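hey all, quick one before standup. I had two proteins in the batch that finished overnight and I want to keep them in one place so we stop losing track of which output belongs to which input. First protein below, input sequence then structure tokens straight from the run.
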Amino acid sequence: MKNYLIAAGLLLFAHFFSPVLSQDAGKVVPHRDYHNSGKQFTPSAKMKEADWSDPSELQRTWAASLVRIPDEKGSVIKSSIENLKQKKIPNAKKYPTIIYLHGCSGVWQGTYRRIDFFATNGFAVIAPLSFARKKYAKSCDAKTHTGGFYRPVLKMRQNDAAHAIVEAKKLVWVDPENIFLIGLSQGGITTATFRSDNPTTAVNARVIEGWTGHAGWKEYHGVNAPESEPVLSLVGRDDPWFQQTWNKGDCGEFLNKTNGSRSIVYTETPLRSRHELLEDKGVQKTVLRFLKQHIKK
């Protein structure tokens, strides 16, 4: 039965890099707790529906959020929401801000590369850490590249994203009119399926990295962005995670064709068989161009 749920539902996507050390809080801090290799997971049987939206759990993901803030001198402030009060933040400027969602195995080196890249290109970045929850069930196995272990994890990720968007708009250095949602793998699934029905959780645009929009579980299937939120989706044609009949393809059929949304399927080597596409400089340029096109003046 377990194998059936995994196969028929969804392969959540894992990243194979060991956890790293961060100096975001002013000292070297291990992030094993925010990665599959070190997180103390809650057994699925002990998870309750109330846990998904527990305010104290949402606050933990927010407080632990990785933060990047560019400044006019060309450097980047690196911190977390919890430790940001120890930093001197210039109040003169509000930055377009990215809410960045990590994959199913948590924080890895690529998380830092992505948020640093966006910050050096003029965007503030806030990356809520769902792994900071006290009660959190394991949803994938990085070593075997399988997932779907805890189906409701998607709802938890969506709740964490919504909370981060609402809280981000309150910060003095965030431009509340220019918020973007970007996610990789399971973070990409969350980005695709997130519903911003409430104006307080609306964003300018979304970027989905490493996801097709096709899944056996209905709540994982498709793209839920409203017409006002253009979407850029990125996937390799031969991405090894998407070779099953039920998850193969791309997000193109789910996107609005009139609002600037675009689905890019990479068909040339080496990107056609890559999952983590934003490691490539050409892909980075494509994403930056899309984001800048949708900044409100």
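OK second protein, same deal, sequence then tokens:
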Amino acid sequence: MLLDAPGMRLGMITRGMVLSFILGILFAAVVVRFAYHAADQRKAFLARVTEAEPVKQRTEANRTEASTLHKPVSEVERSLDQPDPNHVLGIYEGLAEENPDFIGWIKIPDTEVDYPVMHTPSEPEKYLQLSFTQEHNQNGVPFVDHRCSVHPDSDNLIIYGHNMKSGKMFSSIVNYKMESYYREHPLIEFDSLYEKRKYRVLAAFYDRVYYEDEDVFKFYNFINARNEKEYEDAVRAFKEKSIYDTGVEARYGDHLITLVTCTYQVDNGRFVVIAKQEE
């Protein structure tokens, strides 16, 4: 019996080691499976995020990269932001190369509006449900009216964006129905590929798409004025439609920008924000 005791203890130790080894493998398998599951969930989440987010990140990355160059800050800023009708701004070069439909960037500081803007004259609504990377996306991407021109600019650049329940795209511009919101966000930034620009809100109003035979002023048909009177008439109509008086004036020769999104107060309803380019 005494001779057998050490063998019994060894057998117990060996079995214990084997059991511990098996439990360790099972635990490791559970950890790995959980990690893969978490990774799959993250991929699924990222797939639901709008395509504009990585586009924003790449734009900011361009600024960061430029700041690391061994140049004085003034030179970096000039290379990124200085208007040059023959060269795309440094911060947008990569995006312009990635997608030739990219025409500029729209931003309203301290709001959700911060997106690339597209322009496809031969396919007017191409980005209605298409992402920047040209994949199906219900958010779409803001786009310029196909009748407008950018560089040189039309008298009035019209930009359309969806009114999404998520608050994405142009949903937040409807907040301009409140004068207090306008006071907090009087400026709109729209950079073309070649220069940075700021616009001051001139009017905000509800409107709709009219039938062709309705003899009314149609905001969406004012793009280029044939003369000074036509321009002044359009500005007067914008201000008359406005929910409140901003006190901002526009004169013949001033460039305008119009942001448009759908609303549902009437059939084919729209909410419209008009702004004048700052000198």
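Flagging for whoever picks this up: The chain has six helices and eight strands. Residues 4-48 form the longest helix (45 residues).
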